[in-house]
Amino acid sequence: MRVAHSADEIRRQLQSLRKSQSIAFVPTMGCLHDGHLSLIRKAKALADIVVVSIYVNPLQFGANEDLDKYPRTFEADAKLCAEAGVDFIFHPSTLYGKNGPAITLQAAASLCDCLCGASRPGHFDGVVTVVNILFNIVQPDIAVFGEKDWQQLTVIRRMVSDLHMPVEVVAAETIREKDGLAMSSRNRYLTADDRTAAIAISQALRSMQRLAASGESDIDTLKQEALTILANAGITPEYLDIRHPASLKNRRKLNSLRPARAFIAARVGTARLIDNMPLELTQ
Ligand code: PAF
Predict the structure, then answer these.
(1) What pLDDT score does 187 carry?
(2) One domain, residues 210 and 238
(3) Are both 155 and 194 inside the same structural domain?
(4) Which residue's C-alpha comes closest to atom 6 of ligand 1?
(5) Going by CA atoms, what residue is nearest to atom 8 of ligand 1?
(6) Which residues are annotated as a binding site?
(7) Does residue 177 lie within any of the structural domains?
(8) How many C-beta neighbours within 10 Å does residue 16 have?
(9) Per the record's keyword annotation, is Cytoplasm included, yes or no (predicted)?
């Protein structure tokens, strides 16, 4: 495994390889866990060479968010990457000047003024800007993103299709702890009590899945059930929403012909956790 610290270095390293081998890319902010490892496994299964970037992107953090506190664990990350068979780590110290790039991308409000975007203005603009920079540097054939960050996955899919970027976006399923909690770098902020309470997030999503599968199509009924599960764990969600998985438009009623996905974000202790699951009305 090789580690590149600048755009020029990774470009040089990949230059001749890309002529005969396919490249899969897993962009990360480090602090790798089993969720990332599953993205890496997917990347390995789909291409000859796997590149992982580790870069905590200041552009996607708001003024009062956890940029300074965000865990930076490069040694441990590199070890995990080596064990997982990653070929290249791209670990730049910065990707743009101190004031940020002069040219940035902007994601459409229709995709960003809801869910996480509503409370994190500018977040997805920061994500698409840096992912575009990373794509231009690495020039992968395939890029793998986790379904846990569904809104991010959706925005990136739209960026790639609207801007005709020559990369295939592949989604990887959310990896969960045994009790259902979605794996996240932010889970390490949870105290033991928070950790117990946090299980309610996936339980609330599963309860909506079960109700939908049993034929309940009324969104308010689904949400009420989920809110009760969260309230019993002492959690007031930042949002609990049911939306179309691609347009992210609000769904008012479940309809077996049109897909829907349920989304929750909640602060548990000092950690802001997110999760989502598909809903299928089967009756
Ligand atoms: O999902 C993440 O870790 C980040 O948002 C990403 C895609 C690496 C961009 O900084």
Answers:
(1) 93
(2) yes
(3) no
(4) 28
(5) 28
(6) 29-36, 60, 146-149, 152, 175, 183-186
(7) no
(8) 9
(9) yes
Domain that holds residue 126: 2-172
Residue 179 lies in a domain: no
Mean pLDDT score across all residues of the chain: 95
Q: What is the pLDDT of residues 190-249, one digit of tens each?
A: 999 999 999 999 999 999 999 999 999 999 999 999 999 999 999 999 999 999 999 999
Question: Is 36 considered catalytic here?
Answer: yes
Is 151 a pocket residue for ligand 1 (Cβ < 6 Å)? no
pTM value surpassing 0.90: yes
Tell me: do 41 and 123 sit in the same domain: yes
- 211 and 155 within one domain: no
User: Which atom of ligand 1 lies at the shortest distance from residue 56's CA?
Assistant: 10
CA of 243 to the centre of ligand 1 (A): 22
pLDDT at 175 over 90: yes
CATH of the domain at 257: 3.30.1300.10
Judged against a pLDDT cut of 90, whether residue 37 lies above it is answered with yes
Q: Which protein residue has the closest C-alpha to ligand 1 atom 2? A: 28
- Please enumerate, by residue number, every residue annotated as part of a binding site for beta-alanine: 60
The pair of structure tokens assigned to 138 is 């690495």
Tell whether 159 and 20 lie within a shared domain.
Answer: yes
